Amino acid sequence: MTTISAGGALVVGVDGTPGAAQAVSWAAGLAAERGAPLLLVHGLGISELYRGQLVPPPERLVRELRDRGHRILRQARDLATTSTTADLRVHLADDSAEAALTALSAGARMVVLGATGNTRLTSVFGRSVTLTLAAHAHCPVVSVRGDTSPGDLPVVVGVDGSPLSENAVETAFAEAAARGTSLVAVHAWGTGQTTRVFGEVADYYDWAPTLETETAVLAERLAGRRGRHPDLTVEHVVVHDDPRTALLGWSHKAQLLVVGSRGRGGFTGLLLGSTSQALLHHAACPVLVAH
Q1: Rounded distance, CA 276 to CA 263, Å?
Q2: Residues whose CB is less than 8 angstroms from the CB of residue 10 and which lie 6 or more positions away in sequence, other chains included
Q3: Where is the UspA domain positioned along the sequence (predicted)?
Q4: Which of 26, 40, 249, 261 would you call most buried, defined as having the most Cβ atoms within 10 angstroms of its Cβ?
């Protein structure tokens, strides 16, 4: 079981893949900028190797997994030290990556994962772990993918008007302010919904009144926070488009894309909203899922 505390660190899942290396470099750079501690974690998943939950795995296999885990952590530590001199720790967990990172997220500033992973016997920092952490972690989760060189690109946040998007908006304002860049707030009211309701005649309706209403929704969601960040440039974008399509397009023009774990229409107990899943799989920049 995981017995250490994250202590406000940026927690990075590592598994020896190129995607994990990219996550380490991204997180180390962020830790250096913000003076935050960095914790590199590799999960062995030993409990998952018990046959029928009773027969333990061969000792030789466990030794090999531990040796491999230590090598992965040493390589990740060496990579991180090229970007940061902040407090840097490593942790080899007997737990699976999913269990270890979820537990550590309770005390973490954020959990950072690479976009891909391909290890077979140990932790897989790919689709399943990333989606599970994005849905159930106790702190923001970042999937590092695509172009990680920020340049002067803005932070982009998806705003759907639901209470669950409030944390995404709050996080996006804070990230844009900390990065010294602008913020683009995108509110897309989807063509998928209008097509389901109105059918093939949807294109014949005058959507101007709806656009006016949706513009007011976005302005309302942003109003209070703009007062707390008077120097932050905020652009409002309201489009009649599918949210996934709109935000994927903006991911090519952003240094960070921020979304909520679920949005309007989400159900309690649902792992992760479809828009968030699509962005975690296909966005062209790092994606932060706020809780």
Answers
A1: 9
A2: 27, 30, 31, 36, 37, 38, 39, 108, 109, 110, 112
A3: 10-145, 155-290
A4: 40
